[in-house]
Amino acid sequence: MRLGIVIRYIGIVLLVLAAFMLMAAGISYVNNVDSAYSPLVMSSLITLLIGCFPLIFVPKTDRISQKEGYCIVVGAWVVSSVVGMFPYLMWGGEFTLLNAWFESVSGFTTTGASILNDIEALPRGLQFWRVASCWIGGVGVVMFALVILPSIGKSKMMLSNVELSSLAKDNFHYRTQTIVRIILSIYVGLTIITLLTLKWCGMNWFDALCHAMSACSTCGFSNKNLSVGFFNSPIIELVLIVAMLVSGMHFGLIYATITRKPNNIFRSEITRCYLGMFIVSSVLIAISLRAADVYPSVISSLRHAAFQTASLMTTSGFATANCNTWTPFAILVLMFCMLVCGCAGSTSGGLKVDRLVLAVKMLRNKIQAQQHPNAVVRIKVDGYTQDRDMLNTVMIYIVAFMLLILIGTFVNTLFGCDLMTGFSAALACASNVGPGFGEVGTMDNYSQLPAVLKLNLSIMMLFGRLEIFGLIQLFFIRWWK
Amino acid sequence: MKGIRKRVTIGFLSIVVLLFFSGLVSLFELNHMSTDIESILDSNRHSIELTENMLDAISAHDRAVVNYAVFRDTLYSDSCKVCFAEFSAHIDKARQGASKSTVLMFDSLCINADRLHAVVHELRTSRTIENLILFDTLSNGVSFDGKGWYDRNYVPAYDAASNSIMRVMSHAQISLSPRAEQLSRNAYRAVTPVFISLVVMIAILLMFYYFIMIYALKPIVEMNKSLGDWLRYKIPFKIKSECRDELQELNEKIGSVTNTSKKLY
Fold it and tell me: Shortest CA distance to B14 belongs to which of A11, A148, A100?
């Protein structure tokens, strides 16, 4: 493996981060040169320098191996998280070394879990950097570099193959370069539409920008201590529900719908299942909340239920209500939504609806096979037969994901968390949702957790974002040779 | 400047730039911190000075009142007036530079100072002391107990006014604490860029070492070995190089020399 090549491509990703840091410094400058200005400028310069350095020495190459591709993608996520904590560390405040790492990883992996007790105390430049990190992470740090830098050439295919899971590449019938452009165009377009709609709904430009970027990346970082609950506006909540739900759909299908292709959102079995799950979950939770008299009317029950379901199901993690006060049934339904999450090929994390659908079909297939031992039953999704390798990978991933949550819960409870907090924190971080239940509920944060748990949860976020196998490869020394 | 020389120069320049900027930011933050410390110390000194002046003035007023009311020394009648005017002037001066939150404290101090003034002013305008000295008793036959008046009327007003001064002072001191907190944050900010720069510089130096080893030294070693093999055993000189720099040129030139000499023999 050529380490120089790996470092060169990670350097390219860092250049993108440096540009965003500079943008955040610009916001800081416009805002009367607030206290985040010099930390952001300094971080941007340092990042630029680290990014440029390998470009000077390592010559350009057109071909990279799959192993190098893995290392570039995983390395880019880890190095981005390290570099992303520079502005936080330099600014100080509540950011200790571990808190800055946690916040940075949470941003880039679009988890949206925070250690901040007073978000509004952050200067605007730093608030923008916080949401910018999750916006970059939403589409994937390497994807940004793939689009912005055309000089990457043929290496694009290998990198996009590693960055996008095989499920995410379904529904795309284009060249790699076109796929990457489609993804970014949809992402940027969606963010702009959300921004304008939120502004129209009464938010100021800065709040609208932060919430649009955060909703479209399904991160859930808000610049308000009370999250979306601060605005207490049904129309804003409705806009964010739509934005989050659309961001949780396959971007290829969104593009197909816009360009009036036959394989669009309305015909997709996965999207129908995803939306159906949202509607059923919202209604069930609303009924449960109304029956328990948590909210005074059916409308308010439905409003909060729909928002929290959309928020947790799409792995955003915005909040309008304290879910700890909800009924056990409502919490259980939300936990199921947190586990399954959005569709493959979107910005959301978790198991993905695609895998759930395939798992259910495999179960049905197994029962049919037992009833009719000689029958040959194929598993199809949207008319396409799924090959055995793909189905095996899906099952292995589901088992690995459950194991990850189990190990995370073990570690959390070992270091003093109660079962609800430990399990929900592990689930929320592995699925990149953000808020959990118990001590890490929708209206709480992760600041009170011990340092070792913050480290454990931040590693879980990376595992969840890189869909486990990407990161796990790096732990096998033999693989490096 | 091109090729290896350019790379090495840029490599060293990067480290210099990093050091320069981290130094610059630290200098800026330290300068900022020094200004903040000076400002906090000034505010502190100013607040103590004003409080001292107010306490001195109220104390002088107290002495004048004791001489006038208890010891019946009419010469102190005007002294009471002058001392109070001085006290009021100090309050006004202190109020001018007060922050918004301290203004409320000054309002309370002004009310208490007015009460103090009213108590003494009533005694002075009724000319009770002067009448006592002239006629020994008051016209209505009631005797005047100066010490009793002082204890009953003056002391409570005096205590309220001096407590208000202490409250103003303590509030002014408390209001300095957020600024001190900000200062400690600035101190953190002054140190962190240097710390981060050092870590990054170590990373860059390691990269620099690695790149020099791989892209500068390794080709030279390989060329040397291959040239030695050609001279000794006539094994063809062939080095694969990814770089397009002087080493690549040297590689090509050695290659062409070996080819030419092969043709000659």
Answer: A11
